[in-house]
Amino acid sequence: xxxxxxxxxxxxxxxxxxxxxxxxxxxxxxxxxxxxxxxxxxxxxxxxxxxxxxxxxxxxxxxxxxxxxxxxxxxxxxxxxxxxxxxxxxxxxxxxxxxxxxxxxxxxxxxxxxxxxxxxxxxxxxxxxxxxxxxxxxxxxxxxxxxxxxxxxxxxxxxxxxxxxxxxxxxxxxxxxxxxxxxxxxxxxxxxxxxxxxxxxxxxxxxxxxxxxxxxxxxxxxxxxxxxxxxxxxxxxxx
Length: 239
Prior knowledge:
59% helix, globular
């Protein structure tokens, strides 16, 4: 898939809405390589026009899919009456009784489950964060082009990506963790993101970050969350 369609499918799913967004962008100008930032900027606008608002995170909406899986399926059904203790799963006799461990899911089934979980998690992020993740982790835009597409100052890109990755990890885990109590947290997020994405970092900032992560638990958690979220997102296949 070309970048335009990949982005729209990631934002809207592989359906009529994404197709309409692609058609809208394609009808408003050239999609040549020299117009990459302009094309993706118009794709962001087209997807925003079609994307449903993200559900608010509250007790009413319930936990994230990763945490909600057990809540939705629940424990094994309780069976009343003789022969089945309360809370135990019913025993199955006869030829259909399981004889060993459950079969492992096929690779395509596992990939589909990962894609559904990630789609649900990113749908709960603020729109700009889900867009930034797609542009960086899926499309691979460099920071300067990402800033142009998102119409933000290039200096804001590292922290935007850092917060998007931390937010994604929290949605996947269903637990945002305690808020960091660190006066230099934003500096840490910026430097972590720059290092993670292979951007230039001054020797002074690099040395500072290594020393800082050695004693700041909040920034250390942010570092781990960002690495985990990035790995999860990149495992998400639309194929």
